[in-house]
Each structure stands twice: as structure tokens, then as C-alpha cells.
């Protein structure tokens, strides 16, 4: 019997509904959909890192990573990243940022699998990412 | 060696293709995308619970829950809920219904992670939800 | 401690960014989003199997299957297939192709669960599929 635990990094505001930013049970860790919100400031509404795809993508990665680390995992444990973009024309630029970011993460294990699709997101948001990790 | 079993609640019509409403293998249970269809009536086409987001969301939750329970799981075992809406303007109302529903479910474990994105669905459907559970 | 391994079938071109076509760790195998690209020809850009939903769907299935098999799995191990279509009007035809294809695969275990949603994809692509498998 493994206990299910919620993962709530100090940088993250409370979710807008009864869900967890991340949950871990046994060796499975699931990260909820993250967007480019800056670290939460108490008493203020969530603020996006910037209007550009680059700013939002890097902040989204930071937000996913914070949950992984709070749950005892790292990028090396991630099996799947789901990338939601709002615009097909952002694919090439997202891939550039993706490669640059993961090139700097000193991964010791193979890169995660990935699916990228184009959906609607709330106004002002260009990217959302969630992750499934399996720990060692 | 764990056996893979299909989960088919009595309330559910046969899927429209060769997939299962739910499958379990070992401690992993996957619920297929559920929509707001009322309990199946033999010989009749699936009927949606109603035109409103509230009616469809509550029925969709009931349909997910029926699969979890038929597979020996509960909401407490759910790691991830994927919520597909057709309209960004439905986000706030869906969150209200979500909180109300889970507030009544007497959860003993932390809430699941969640991703919400906005996609196309067949005409008349406003919400679809799938779930990944890890049993205790 | 299970090792995480990348799965790269000989038929597949290098991914367009730092992600893996498939990864396996312990008994979990994740297949990245696959589209209808024909087997890779060195020095040439990826080419889609054809303009029709049928051609692309069958090629996409072949691409998913190649990753499953390279990772030591089969369709019988698949728990979840996520099907992304670009057009709601393709649902019925996709289901026909789906049933025909899986009817020929001699499955020994129950069919996987499935979610189908309608999203944007890069120009010329009508379908994308990813898969989560749990090995025996």
C-alpha cells in the first residue's frame, strides 16, 4: 500500500479548483498542466512571465521542474511531456527553446517522449505542459 | 505477470469502436474519455444528460466513477484527470461544479492532478474527461 | 532501480527536438505522438503516407506498433490510446479503420481505453496517436 501525496511547491499559488499541482503514489508522479505563471505572490492574482512564447515556455518548464523536485523526482524520471500550444506557427520556435532548455539540464537518462497538439487556452497563455514521471 | 482486464459498467453502452471504457492491469487503471451520456437503454442511441455544462459535467463524473468502481478503484486512487472543454468561457463554471462535486465525495486522499484544455468535440457535447488511477 | 531506455525504431527519423519516440522504464512504456510519416529515408524530409485519413491512420498505427515492438511490447500491453483528429467529421471513418485494423491484430487481451479529441495539427496531418503501455 503506497500513500498518495500532494505536491505543492512554495512557488505555486493554490490551484483554482480542487486539484493538486502534482501527486505521487508509489513510483508514479503526475504533474498537472502548468503554464507560464511567475512564482506566486500572496494576495495577488497569478501573473504570466511575459507575452512571448520564450518567456512562457521557460517559466512553464521551471514550474514543472519545481513539482518534480518537490516530489523527489527530476527531468530524468519523466516519461512523457504533453505540450499544448495555441498556434501551429509556434512549433519550430518551441522546439528551439525545448532543445536549448534540455541541453542545459545535464540529463543522464534519455529524453522523455512527447506529444504536441494545438488547442485553445485562456487568453494570454501560449503554452501548457504536463508530465508523467516514473521514479527509479 | 498481471492480467489486463476490460472494465464495462452495466450503465455504459458498448463503445463505438474496439476500445474499452476502462482497462486495469496490475495496479494501473485507465479510464477512457467519458462524456455526459445517461445510463444506456438497450436499443436506443446514447442520450446526453442535458444541454448545460452542469448536467453534462455531473453525468461525466458519474460515468468516470462507475468505471473506477467497477475496476475496484475510487476517486482517491485517481492521479490525473484530463478535462476537455469546448469553450474557454466554461472554465470558471466547470471549476465551481468540480469543487462542489469533489467536496461531496468524502475524499480521503489528496485531489488528483488535472489538465484542462479547449478542443473540438462532437456536436452537443461540452465536456469530456478521462482518468488515470494507481491502486493502493 | 529500473533503467530508463529510449526506443528508436530503424523506420523512424530522428525526432524534431530532444524527445524520444518511445521510452521504457520498468514495466511502463510510453509512445510519443505518432503521425502518418512513411519509414524515414536518410537525407530526405519526412513524407506523409498520403492525403487521406485511411492512409494516415494505418501508417500511424504502424508507427506506434514499431515503437511498442522495439520496446518489447505489443498492442496487448497498451492501456490507453489518445487519438487526435483535426475534424469531427472524421470520427465515423476513423472508427471504421480502427475496428478493421484491430480486428486484424489478433489481440489476446482486451482492447485499450481511448480518448478522441479534435485539435489543430501541422498542415497536411489529419491524425496523431500516442500510447501508454504496461508490460506484463
Report on the structure:
3 copies of one chain form a homotrimer. Chain A has about 140 residues and is an alpha+beta fold. Chain A has a single domain (about 5-135), classed as RutC-like (60s Ribosomal Protein L30, Chain: A, 2-Layer Sandwich), CATH 3.30.1330. Helix content of chain A is about 25%, strand content about 25%. Chain A has a 6-stranded mixed β-sheet, covered by helices on one side. Chains A and C meet through β4, α2 and β5 of A and β1, β2, β3 and β6 of C.
Q: Indicate the CATH architecture of chain A.
A: 2-Layer Sandwich
Number of helices of chain A: 2
Strand percentage of chain A, roughly? 25-35%
Number of strands of chain A: 6
In helices, the fraction of residues of chain A equals 10-25%
Instruction: Outline the biggest β-sheet of chain A.
Output: 6 strands, mixed
Shape, per Cα inertia axes of chain A = globular
Q: What is the mean pLDDT of chain A?
A: 97
Low-confidence stretches of chain A: none
Order of helices and strands of chain A: EEEHEHEE
Pfam family, one (chains A, B, C): Ribonuc_L-PSP
Protein name (chains A, B, C): RidA family protein
Organism (chains A, B, C): Streptomyces litmocidini
Keywords (chains A, B, C): Hydrolase
